[in-house]
Design brief:
This protein is α+β, with helices and mostly antiparallel strands. It has one domain (21-88): Nuclear Transport Factor 2, Chain: A (Roll). The chain has helices spanning 6-17, 36-45, and strands at 49-55, 59-66, 69-76, 82-88. It has a 4-stranded antiparallel β-sheet, with helices on one face. A hairpin with a 5-residue loop joins strand 3 and strand 4. The longest helix has 12 residues, at 6-17.
C-alpha cells in the first residue's frame, strides 16, 4: 500500500462519525422512528437542533433549526417516514 493513502484511510472513521448535515429536503421518504424520542435522536445525530414536536392524529410536526434556518418536518406516526419538509421563514 502506498504511503500517501494512509492519511486518507486514517481519516475515514472520523468522517463516518461526523453528522451528515444533509439538506432537510433529503429527509423526505426516510424513516426517523415512531416516537418523539427516536425522531429527536435521529435528527440530532444528523446535526439538526430540535426545537419542538407537536403531535397530531396521524403525524408529528417537528420544528428544527438547520444552518440557522427553521424548518418544519412532518413525520407519519405509524411508520416514522418523513412526509414533507417546509422551510419556515
Amino acid at each position: 500500500m502506498p504511503l500517501r493513502t494512509l492519511p486518507a484511510l486514517a481519516a475515514a472513521p472520523l468522517l463516518a462519525a461526523a453528522p451528515a448535515l444533509a439538506d432537510p429536503r433529503s429527509l423526505v421518504g426516510r424513516s426517523l422512528g415512531t416516537t418523539p424520542e427516536a425522531i429527536t435522536a435521529a435528527l440530532q445525530a444528523e446535526g439538526y437542533e430540535v426545537l419542538a414536536i407537536d403531535t397530531d392524529d396521524a403525524e408529528y410536526e417537528i420544528e428544527v433549526r438547520w444552518q440557522g434556518a427553521r424548518h418544519e418536518i412532518e413525520v407519519a406516526r405509524d411508520t416514522g417516514v418523513v412526509r414533507e419538509v417546509e422551510r419556515d421563514d
